[in-house]
Amino acid sequence: MSNQATMITEGRIGFLGAGSIVEAMLSGIVKKGLLPSERITVSNRNNMERLEQLANDYGVTATQDKFEVVRSSDILILAIKPKDAAEALQDLRGVVRSDQLIISVVAGVSTSLIGEWLGAECPIIRTMPNTSSAVGLSATGLCANPFVQEEHRELATKLFEAIGTVYEVAEEELDIITGLSGSGPAYIYYLVEAMMGAGATAGLDREMARQLTLQTVIGAAHMLLDTREEPSTLRQKVTSPGGTTQAGLEVLEAYQFQEAVTAAILRAAERSREMGAHYQ
């Protein structure tokens, strides 16, 4: 594994799991040309229809034989449901090789527990991407166990940089990253739903309300990125005393909007910790 570029272009990646995050990653990897689709294998336990859909859409190999996936993969990506992780990984004892790189996107499950279940001293990288992987705009947190070498870090970073930005963090920080950016797209979609609904309720054509809302969100994000100003500063700049924006913000404050968002993120992070503790 000394040549990262060769490993990505000539090696094989296997996915255990075929949910939405796997499809998002597949879309990003295939669109970026990071790895030929014929060198990617996807597996799940009991939904062959889903596997056939992924095979048709992305040209990957699909199988319900997880042992085949493990044996044929240089990089094994764990994307199974947390509740199924213990049983699924304990089944792989004696199959996983010490030279395989294990990358987990299983929420709440630590690298040490994954290693314990696999019964192998192998490099394990735990990550938390989000579904914006599908359009190459994921924000991914990443941490490593003691068996991970620099070349593994570079390989995982390159893999996830193909679908967005990557931040290496301490493992204990992954729970809050899960709440903030892992679950974060859902909060934005929820906001967009509300804004679109308000426009439609007030009489706008629904498609127009959608386009106005999306452009507003995109524009605000670019303002934050391009100006590098604090969000509070930009908010104040568009809030004239006694104006329409102030009137709207006063309603959000009355509903404790910021407190609700903070509570949602912290609760998601807490849930990630709960999920991990359940399996200790």
From TrEMBL:
The keyword Endoplasmic reticulum does not apply. It comes from the Bacteria. It is found in: Cytoplasm. Pfam families: F420_oxidored, P5CR_dimer. InterPro entries: 6-PGluconate_DH-like_C_sf, NAD(P)-bd_dom_sf, P5C_Rdtase_cat_N, P5CR-like_CS, P5CR_dimer, Pyrroline-COOH_reductase. Gene3D superfamilies: NAD(P)-binding Rossmann-like Domain (3.40.50.720), ProC C-terminal domain-like (1.10.3730.10). Keywords: Amino-acid biosynthesis, Cytoplasm, NADP, Oxidoreductase, Proline biosynthesis. Its EC number is 1.5.1.2. PROSITE patterns: P5CR. Pathway: Amino-acid biosynthesis; L-proline biosynthesis; L-proline from L-glutamate 5-semialdehyde: step 1/1. Residues 12-108 form the Pyrroline-5-carboxylate reductase catalytic N-terminal domain. Residues 171-275 form the Pyrroline-5-carboxylate reductase dimerisation domain. It catalyses: L-proline + NAD(+) = (S)-1-pyrroline-5-carboxylate + NADH + 2 H(+); L-proline + NADP(+) = (S)-1-pyrroline-5-carboxylate + NADPH + 2 H(+). Catalyzes the reduction of 1-pyrroline-5-carboxylate (PCA) to L-proline. PANTHER family: PYRROLINE-5-CARBOXYLATE REDUCTASE, PYRROLINE-5-CARBOXYLATE REDUCTASE 1. Belongs to the pyrroline-5-carboxylate reductase family. This is Pyrroline-5-carboxylate reductase. It comes from Brevibacillus porteri.
